[in-house]
Amino acid sequence: MSEDLGRELKELIIESLDLEDVTPEDIDDDEPLFVDGLGLDSIDALELGMQIQKKYNLKLDANNEANKQHFASVTALRRFIESQQAT
Amino acid sequence: MVFQPALLIPCYNHGDQIDATVSRLAHHRLPCLIVDDGSDATTAAVLDRLAAEHDWLTLVRLPENRGKGAAMAAGVDAAAEAGWTHVLQIDADGQHDTDDIPRLLDKARDQPDALVSGQPIYDDDIPRVRFYGRYLTHALVWLQTLSFAIRDSMCGFRVYPVVASRDLFHAHRIGRRMDFDTDIMVRLYWRGTPVVFVPTRVRYPRDGVSHFDMLGDNLRIAWMHARLICGMVPRAPLLVARRLRRGSEKIHWTRQVERGTYWLMWLSLQLYRVFGRPGARLVLYPLVTWYWLSNAQGRRASRDFLQRVYEHGGAQQRPPRALDVYRHFFMFSDCIVDRLESWRGRLRHEHVQFNGQQMLLDEAARGRGAILMTSHLGNIELCRGLNDQLRNLRMNVLVYNHHAPRINRIIEKSNPNSRLKLVDIREFGMQTAAMLEQQVRDGEFLAIAADRTPPSLNENVVPARFLGSEAPFPTGPFIIAALLHCPVYLMTCVRVEGRYRIDVVHFAEEITLSRKNRDADLQYWAQRYADDLEARALETPMQWFNFYDFWGHPVTRDGTARNQDGYNGD
């Protein structure tokens, strides 16, 4: 289940950010999404935050620092979504 | 300079709360002075017990109740004797957030000569009368100091420099009761003590003991303000000189006027009710004249702008003279009067020409929202007052203003059906983006000004050519538009030959920023916006209300603006 979610997230990242030449396999679960790693910038972060919130109906934090943690990597994101869906 | 702070609590009959207040202070590990201002036996007993239990507490007792000012004077004397350099005053009733003590002390350590005051951020439970009362007091204090330096004169949560305060207590009879906090702050300021602020949360105690005596204290406060205004007159040249010497304060003056207009609006509105337009001008014209006289930077900016308009063949048809600059300043006060008229519903539809409204109505009919990019050219605030159809659109105005929630509550109270809301975007993050996206999907409109750079120094800006040279434009509005994937319109409202003209033009069906050429794309959109703004500025230059050096922040290579003249979009 959580493996599927991980893959789903990678596809969503690629699609919503128009990442050409990137496949889900290229994204490491634990690699940082922003700045290093995939090299996404703050605009990407906002875009991704919106898409993910819409798709999974999440309640994001008002605190930007907390959101940064949730979106640090695919694994962090997956855990965040699962924790929200569990409640 | 040695920095030896202590806490100081004046206490009169707060027996129930003082215990809790003291226990919250223990972990700060500071000496604490409690001045018992002639409390009753119960409170006195509590204080005696506390002083016996805690060795960091010192108790000073006044034989009879003399009021807060007297208690503070006694406390400052005791502090001077003990060798403390600063006293941090806290109210006994627990309304101050003691967690902020370190922040106040840090500020005092940085600026040991200054009076450091908490600037209250109130919870929702502040009574409304108090709220307006505060604005009236702010206004009086601005007049008494001829400066906007004092942002709040009533919060008692402060760090006093001991020596300067003791000298003042000895030289002058300071208000002893509810008039104390304002009186001492204004007088310290007069004597050259800078006043600096640290935002802090204040809880208005519901069940606390309030010692406010309606008639007596109000009279005392009125008398204090009268004395302070009289005291300002002989000091006026010095106060003005001090202001000029320090350069303009760090906030753009139209902002100051607008900030002042919370109360000024109220005052002007009352005068407007009785005397109409001339009544409101009675307040606004002297104020703007004062700004014109005292604000060299604003005058320079106006002249530079008008010169550029002249060179580019705009409506300024001669090289600008002092009179033109004066007229330019004056237009701003007229702009405020226009707002008053629109609030009073006196601006009627036949005075308005509306170009392009159908486009907005069509968007609304399709059930989708849009972004309206505005500017500080003309008087965009009038639009809703001028047009019923616009008023019926749900409108969110994006601002850099932490008062947004409070202003929203005021709007809601005065008109529960209002469809206008402010959204604070200073902390723009995923949550804000998602919320705005939802609003647009629900058919709401977002208005955002794209001609002022954000308050923070490191926000991104892009250069765009405007009236002959490059000026920095904020990237935020274009980024938000790109994120929301919605149509963008430009909207202005200017006065032309005694009539208002609202123009809505289609700007983009969707703003896209490619991943690879983000900067270039942002620059492209900012330039298109600047081009439209330039054409409009040339047509109605006197309604350009950016009285600061619009070109003055050179854009560095990494896209950040260096804030040189201290302009702040606050």
What report would you give on this structure?
The complex is a heterodimer of chains A (87) and B (570). Chain A has 87 residues and is an all-alpha fold. Chain A contains four helices and no strands. Chain A has helices at residues 2-16, 42-56, 64-70, 74-86. Chain B is α/β, with parallel strands linked by helices and 570 residues long. Chain B folds into two domains: 5-244, Spore Coat Polysaccharide Biosynthesis Protein SpsA, Chain A (Alpha-Beta Complex); 248-570, 3-Layer(aba) Sandwich (Glycerol-3-phosphate (1)-acyltransferase), CATH 3.40.1130. Chain B has 19 helices and 16 strands. Chain B has helices at 15-25, 41-53, 68-82, 101-110, 128-145, 162-171, 180-190, 214-245, 253-275, 277-294, 296-311, 322-343, 357-365, 382-386, 388-391, 404-414, 430-441, 476-484, 518-539; strands at 5-11, 32-37, 57-62, 86-89, 115-122, 158-161, 195-202, 352-355, 370-374, 395-399, 420-424, 445-449, 461-466, 469-474, 488-496, 499-508. In chain B, the strands form three sheets. In chain B, strands 3-2-1-4-6-5-7 form a seven-stranded mixed beta sheet, with helices on both faces. Chain B has a seven-stranded mixed beta sheet with strand order 8-16-15-9-12-10-11. In chain B, β2 (32-37), α2 (41-53) and β3 form a beta-alpha-beta unit. In chain B, α5 (128-145) packs across α8 (214-245). The radius of gyration of chain B is 26 Å and the shape is elongated. At the A-B interface, α2 of A face α17 and α18 of B.
Helix percentage of chain B: 40-55%
Largest interface: A-B, 19 and 14 residues
User: What topology, given as strand order, has the largest sheet of chain B?
Assistant: 3-2-1-4-6-5-7
Distance between the termini of chain A: 17 Å
The average pLDDT value of chain B, as a whole number, equals 82
Q: Using the coordinates shown, work out and report the CATH topology of the largest domain in chain B.
A: Glycerol-3-phosphate (1)-acyltransferase
Question: What is the rounded Rg of chain A?
Answer: 12 Å
Shape of chain B, please?
elongated
Overall morphology of chain A: globular
Number of helices of chain A: 4
Determine the oligomeric state from the structure: heterodimer
Q: What proportion of the residues of chain A form beta strands (DSSP E)?
A: under 5%
E-strand count of chain B? 16
Estimate nothing, just give the exact number of structural domains of chain B. 2
What count of helical segments of chain B does DSSP give?
19
Task: Report low-confidence residues of chain A grouped into runs of 5 or more.
Answer: none
The helix-strand sequence of chain A is HHHH
Which architecture of the largest domain in chain B does the CATH hierarchy give at level 2?
Answer: 3-Layer(aba) Sandwich
